[in-house]
Amino acid sequence: MGLAVDCRKWDEAAYRSSIVEERESQCRTVFRTAFPPSPHPNPNPDLIVAASSDGSVNSYSLSSLLFSLPVGFGNDRGQNLLNARPQCFLQGHDGPAYDVKFCGNGEDALLLSCGDDGRIRGWRWKEVSNLEGNIPLQGGHLKPILDLVNPQHKGPWGSASPIPENNAIAVDNKGESVFAAAGDSCAYCWDVEKSEIKMVFKGHSDYLHCIVARNSGNQIITGSEDGTARIWDCRSGKCIQVIDPEKDKKLKEFFPHVSCIALDASESWLACGNGRTLSVWNLPARECISRISTRASVQDIVFDGNQILAVGAEPLLSRYDMNGVILSQIQCAPQSVFSISLHPAGVTAVAGYGGLVDVISQFGSHLCSFCC
Amino acid sequence: MEYGQSIVDGEVARGQIPRLLDIVLYLCEKEHVEAGMIFQLLEDLTEMSTMRNCEDIFGYIESKQDILGKPELFARGKLVMLRTCNQLLRRLSKANDVVFCGRIIMFLAHFFPLSERSAVNIKGVFNTSNETKYEKEAPEGISIDFNFYKTFWSLQEHFCNPASLTLAPTKWQKFTSSLTVVLNTFEAQPLSDEEGDANNIEDEAATFSIKYLTSSKLMGLELKDPSFRRHVLVQCLILFDYLKAPGKNDKDSPSEATKEEIKSCEERVKKLLEMTPPKGKEFLNSIEHILERERNWVWWKRDGCPPFEKPPIEKKSTQDGVKKRRIRWRLGNKELSQLWKWADQNPNALTDPQRVRTPAVTEYWKPLAEDMDVTAGIEAEYHHKNNRVYCWKGLRFSARQDLDGFSRFTEYGIEGVVPFELLPLDVRSKYQAKPNERSKRAKKEEIKGAAHQAEENQIATPASEIDVEGGRADLEASAAPMDTDAAITTGNISHGGSPDEQQKQGSDTDGGQEPGQIEADAETEAGLIDGEADTEVDLDAVG
C-alpha cells in the first residue's frame, strides 16, 4: 500500500481521503495526449502533455522518466509500471478533461484543453514549460489566459440548460479560431482574440464526439453520436456534405456513432471510425475508398503519411495501409486506448485506461510506459 | 651451367624458374631425390619472393596440385605446404588481397583431406575477437529509442561468445529478456513484400559488407531491411543450436527449464524467418538444412573425427546381407525367385530343341503296359502301378491328352487308363467290357467281393489304397481340386474321403464305382492267381 500509518495521531479523514485518492488514481483514464510543437522536427520529443479523467492537464518529461527507469525497463511491458511524477501540473477542469491541443508555434504557442465542464482553457505554453523544476503542484495556480464557456440554451420561463460539455477541440492553422465539439449537438467556432463565438454549426441530431479542421478549404469536419460525419463551411456555417458511413449497410451496428475522424496531410483523405469499422473516404471524389473491420471498436485514428494508425478497445496499436491491409500490430500497455498522438520524429504515444501512457519509438519498441 | 647463366639474366629468369621446378618435381615424383625436396623448395621460394612473385609461385602450386597431391609426395610434404600457405596468409592483407587469400584457402581446402585435423577447429573455439562495438551513450539531438538500440546490439556479445551463456545463469536471463524485446519488436512490425523487394535490390547492388554498421542513426533503416533481420535471426538459430548440442559431460548440458525457453524462442525465430518477405519459407528451409549439416559436423567432431571411408570388408558383408534379404522377400524364397527370373534369363528356352516336353501318353504308359503283360512276368513288387508318383503323373497326362482313356479310371483303376494299343490283345479285352452291366452285377457281389478282397485281391486292393492315399495327399497339397484328384479319391470313398467330395460325387456313381473296381480287381486276380499265388501268400505273411 505504501501508506505509512501513524496510530499516535490518528486522522481518519486523512486516511479516508488518501484511500480515495489512490482508488481514483487507479481508475483514472487518460483521454488525450499531445506532443508540444518543437522548432526542430528531428529531436526526440521530450515533453508530453496528457489530459486525464481527473481534470488535470499534466506534462511529463520523457528523458527524466527514462533516466529514472532501470536499463531495459522501458521495454518490458506489463511489469510494475512507473508512477510518473509530472513535470508540470495544471488543474484544468472540474470533471474530466477530454482534449488537449496546441495552438500556434514556437514562443506564442497556446496549450488548449477542454473538458466536461464545458470550458475551453488556454495557457501560454512557454509559461507552463518554464515551471520546470518547481514543485509540480504549483502549476495548479497558474492562471489560464483563455477561459471560454459554452453558452447555455434558454428554455421557457427563463430556465437554462446545463452547460454542454466539450468533447473535442480543433484549431485552425492561423491560430485565430478554436473549434469545439460540444454535447448539445452543436459545434462552436471561437475567436481566440475576442473570446467570443464566431459561428455555431447546427445540424447534428446527437452530441458530437470529434472535430477536425480542414484548413485548405476553410472547413471543419465533425463526427457525432447520430452516426454521421458532416463537413461544414466555416464562412457560411452551412453543412456542405453529410458523410454517413453506415448508409450502405443494411443492419445498423449496435453503436453507430462516429467516434473519431482524421485527415491526412494533404487534407483530401478522411478516415472515419465508427463502431468496429474504419472507413477511408476520398473527399474530392466524395467516395468511400475502403472499409476496414476491426476486432474492437475504433477509438482514435491518425494518419502517418499514407498509412493509418488506429487504436481501440484492445491493447493494440494497428497500422493499416489505405486499402485496409494490416501492416503491423504492436502490443501496448493500456487495455483500452482512447488516444493516439504522433510526433513528427516517428514516436507514437498511446494512452487510455488506468492512466497509462505508452510511448512507442519509431522502431516499434516501447520507449517507455508510465502511469499518470 | 647454361641454365645457371640464364637465371641471372633478369627477364628470361622468371620464365626459367617454373621449368626448374618442373624438373625437381619430376625427380621427386620418380623418387630420384627425396620427395620432400619440392615442398622445401617452394617454401623457400615463397619466403624470399615479393608478394607479387608469390602470386606466380602460388599459381604454379595450384597448377601442379594433382602431382603434389599424390600420396607419396603428399605424405612427405603436407606439413611444409601447410606452413607455406599459412605464412602466405599471414603476410597478406585481409582487406586488400581478398582474392589471393581466397585462392589460398580454396587450395588448402582441396589439397588437404576433409578430416585434416588442423582445419576442423576440434574444440569448437569461438572467435571472440570479433567484437561488435556500439554506442554506449545516447547521442545528442537524435530521436531514437536508445534503450532499444543498446538492447539490440548487446545481443551480439552473446552471439560472439555463446559459451559464456552456459556458464552464468544471470547472463542467460539477460540474454533472453533482451531477445524477447527484439523479437517482440520484429513481430510487431512485419515487413511487407514491397519493402523486401526494395531493400533486396539495394543489397544485391554490390554493397555487401562483412559487418553491419552499428551507428544509432542507421538503426531505423536497418530494422526495415529484411536481410538485416535475417542475419540476426539466423544468428539466434546458430546460438540455439550450440546450446542444444550435448556437452562433453552431463553438467554442461542446459537444464530442462532452459531447454523449454530455447525451444519457444526457436519457434518464434523460425516463424519470424518465415514471415520475412522475399521467399521466407524457402529461406527458412535452406537455413534449416544448412544447420542440420552443421550439427552433423559437430557430432562428427565429437566422435573424434572418424574417417569417412568405411573399411571395405565391413561394407561388403553388409551389402550382401541386404541383397539376400531383398531377393528372398520378393517372391517368398530363393527358388521361386529364380523360377520367376528363369524366363527372362533364358529367352530361347521355348525354342530350344533340347527342351523337356510333356511326354505323349502312349510313351508314358509303356512301362506299365509292359508290366501288365502277363507274359513279361513282372513281380508285383516292381509293378509300376505300385509307384504312386508314376501313376499320379500318368493320370495328369491322360487327363489332358486322352480323356477317353482317363474316364476308364473310374471303372478299371489305373490299369484301365493305359491306352489299348500298348496292351497285348488278351489283356486289352478285359478293359473293354460294358460298364453298365458290370456295375449292376457288382452290387450283388459287393459283400462277397469285399471278403474276396481281403483274402485274395492282395495285389489290387492295397495298390488302390495306396494309390488313393497318395492321391489324397497330393490333393491336399495341390491348390485346386482337379478332376484327376477327384477321380483318384473316388475309389476311396468308403475309406473316408472328405464329406465335400462325397457330395460332389453323387450317390449314383458312388454306388457303382467301388464294386466295379473291386470286380475288376477280382477279375484281374483271376488271371493273375495262377502265376502269383505264392507271392501273394508271401506278401500276406509279410503284411
TrEMBL record, chain A:
One Pfam family this sequence matches:
WD40
| GO BP terms | mRNA export from nucleus
For whether the record's keyword set contains Protein biosynthesis, the answer is: no
Keyword Repeat among record annotations? yes
**Keywords for this protein:** Repeat, WD repeat
Q: Where are the WD repeats?
A: 201-242
User: How is this protein annotated for GO cellular component?
Assistant: THO complex; transcription export complex
The family line of this record is: Belongs to the WD repeat THOC6 family.
This chain belongs to the protein called THO complex subunit like
Organism encoding this protein: Actinidia chinensis var. chinensis (Chinese soft-hair kiwi)
From TrEMBL, chain B:
Basic and acidic residues bias locations: 435-455
Note down the stretches annotated as region Disordered.
432-543
Annotated Acidic residues bias: 531-543
What's a single GO CC term here?
A: THO complex part of transcription export complex
GO BP terms in the entry:
defense response to fungus; ethylene-activated signaling pathway; mRNA export from nucleus; ta-siRNA processing
**PANTHER family attached here?**
HPR1, THO COMPLEX SUBUNIT 1
Q: What is the protein's name according to its record?
A: THO complex subunit like
